[in-house]
Amino acid sequence: MASTNPLFFLLLSTLLFLSPLSDAQTAPPLAKGLSYTFYKSTCPNLESIIRLELQRAFKSNVGLAAGLLRIHFHDCFVQGCDGSVLLDGSASGPSEKSAPPNLTLRKEAFDAINQLRDRIEKACGRVVSCADITALAARESVFLSGGPNYKVPLGRRDGLTFATSDATLKFLPSPRSNVSVLLAALALNNLDVNDLVALSGGHTIGIGHCSSFNNRIFPSRDPSMDQTFFNNLRLTCPTSSTTNTTNLDVRTPDVFDNKYYVDLVNRQGLFTSDQDLYSDGRTNPVVSAFANDQGLFFEKFAYSMVKMGMLNVVTGTGGQVRANCSARNPGTGWSVVDGEEGGSVAAY
Questions:
Q1: What pLDDT, in 10s, does the model give residues 135-160?
Q2: Looking at 74, 157, 216, 300, which residue is catalytic?
Q3: Of 308, 310, 313, 304, whose CA–CA distance to 84 is shortest?
Q4: Is 257 annotated as belonging to a binding site?
Q5: Tens digits of per-residue pLDDT, 281-313?
Q6: Cβ neighbours of residue 330 closer than 8 Å, sequence gap 6 or more
Q7: Is 195 part of any known ligand binding site?
Q8: 3-state SS string for the chain
Q9: Which cysteines form disulfides (predicted)?
Q10: 84 is in an annotated binding site
Q11: Which residues contact 87 (CB under 8 A, 6 or more apart)?
């Protein structure tokens, strides 16, 4: 559905290329094999190609931005940022896409990554991995929606395996999880309190399904929820089995900003995993700081996204560069891994 939000299109038309990548960006140490200039000689126009293609796509489908951002999260937290979530299933078994946490990932977002794959290959040949395309598409989703224009280290290769459903469930905590569960999950990948709160800010765009938060409105209102917010949610989700959706951020749903944290301060977070960030004393100070300072949120979000984007990457001669992001290249057999070396996600 096309957006009717004039602010979104104002951002698209005025921010494009006006916010250069900052040389002063604070970033974690690079993972071995990654660099900020990886495709400088082999595909110098890579980032411009992706930005222009997605700028056009978002004009007709504003929800695609959140969809692409979410795919990057779900890829990285299950066995690392290797493009495994993009793979379709095979005779070996169902892919990560079939696991319950990934059933609501948007088909049009997967399609957009394959379309970018084709466009880039026409321009540069088959040199850019689907994992790198996914990471760059996530950055563009943030920037073109009004968020920071951070640098993305590149050089990922596409993994040769996908995780089982059990592993995907293990490393993608439910949106009904509390802060203790989320912190324990992120600690598996050396992500901390600041990373949890910053990465959760991705919920400033996108939608949530009634089934993901009906525990907070049935049989009665979660006491941590604002009464008016509750009343509106009960209109959207009149029964506990309703399949409707609602915006994650009630203030500026199509704009990447710090209003998600303002929502939390006002007890208008949608999921348990959202609102508990404000309720819990370990995360409350960070939520309050981000609610009061958008620049601080942008800085910390960019840092945590780069940090997350380097989880268990495949580089060098490992893996492959897929011709089709949904399938391994012909001539290679399938295998499934249990994901024990994978990561976890903050109910995203």
A1: 999 999 999 999 999 999 999 999 99
A2: 74
A3: 313
A4: yes
A5: 999 999 999 999 999 999 999 999 999 999 999
A6: none
A7: no
A8: CCCCCHHHHHHHHHHCCCCCCCCCCCCCCCCCCCECCCCCCCCCCHHHHHHHHHHHHHHHCCHHHHHHHHHHHHHHCCCCCCCHHHCCCECCECCHHHCHHHCCCCHHHHHHHHHHHHHHHHHHCCCCCHHHHHHHHHHHHHHCCCCCCCCCCECCEECCCEECHHHHHHHCCCCCCCHHHHHHHHHCCCCCHHHHHHHHHHHHCCEEEHHHHHHHCCCCCCCCCCHHHHHHHHHHCCCCCCCCEEECCCCCCCCCCCHHHHHHHCCCCCCHHHHHHHHCCCCHHHHHHHHHCHHHHHHHHHHHHHHHCCCCCECCCCCECCCECCECCCCCCCCEECCCCCCCCCCC
A9: 43-124, 76-81, 130-325, 210-237
A10: yes
A11: 95, 96, 97, 162, 326, 327, 328
Residues paired with 314 in a beta bridge: 157
**Omega within 30 of 0 (cis) for the link into 219:** yes
Annotated ligand binding at 209? The verdict is no
CA distance 128 to 136: 11
Residue type, 207: I
74 is catalytic: yes
- How many angstroms separate the CA atoms of 88 and 97, rounded? 7
Give the pairing type, strands 162-163 and 336-337.
parallel
- 55 vs 17: CA distance, rounded Å: 11
- Among 45-59, 130-144, 168-182, where is mean pLDDT lowest? 168-182
